[in-house]
Amino acid sequence: MLPSIEKLSADAILPPPRKGTLLFTRTQPIVAIGISTGGPEALEKILTKLTRTCPGIVIVQHMPGNYTGTFARRLNSLCEVDVNEAITGDRVKPGRVLIAQGGKHMLIKRIGIEYVIQIVEGPPVCRHIPSVDVLFRSVATAAGQNAVGIIMTGIGGDGALGLREMRECGAKTYAQDEKSCTVYGMPREAMKIGAASEEITLLKVPEFINGIR
Asked: For the segment 46-57, what is each residue's pLDDT rounded down to a tens digit?
């Protein structure tokens, strides 16, 4: 029998946002996406339809470390937007999509009016590295009402608590609808705890992101 992995929370990587005390000045919007099983196909359908005027996007796709770079390069060859595997110091900006490295956690930090990537080592959170909960918590803390969070197809509950933290900090939050999911696990958990304000179908996601201002 394989040893079980302790189910740590995002507290293992960064402290929770201090709800009610955060003040966010208006900046360019940022979109954070968490996705797992069925994600590569879903992300291709979304990213190939985005325009270069879309908001900056950060993505955690559950995937081993030796695959994320290849995955990002393939998407970049198909898309109008720039798609890259994220590294520390990358700026989140319109027309750019940054995908978390497999085997490391991805956070965003705010520097002035810019959002900057930080890649960190750490244990699995919700049994995943990278973890959606870690990304979403960092977005809640750094961006608040300037952010949009979308949790999509995947097994388990990674991202549900982080999405709720984003909503509590003023972000707009969405979950992919059951009909268009490969696996309605992560979105179900988010809806169950009130983390997402509403559901959205996969085919509507590109139009929705392109329209964010």
From this structure: 999 999 999 999
Whether 1 has a pLDDT exceeding 70, the answer reads no
Q: For residue 213, give the amino acid letter.
A: R
Q: What is the pLDDT of residues 184-204, one digit of tens each?
A: 999 999 999 999 999 999 999
State whether residue 119 is helix, strand or coil: strand
Whether 79 shows a pLDDT value over 70: the answer reads: yes
Which residue of the set 133, 138, 158, 180 is catalytic?
158
Q: Is 195 left (phi over 0), alpha (psi -120 to 50) or beta?
A: alpha
Model-level pTM? 0.95
- Active-site pick, 4, 62, 105, 138: 62
**25-208: CATH, from 3.40.50.180, 3.40.605.10, 3.40.718.10, 1.10.10.10:** 3.40.50.180
Q: Is 77 a catalytic residue?
A: no
Domain boundaries, the chain: 25-208
The token pair that represents 12 in the structure block: 């293992």
Catalytic residue status for 62: yes
133 is known as an active-site residue? no
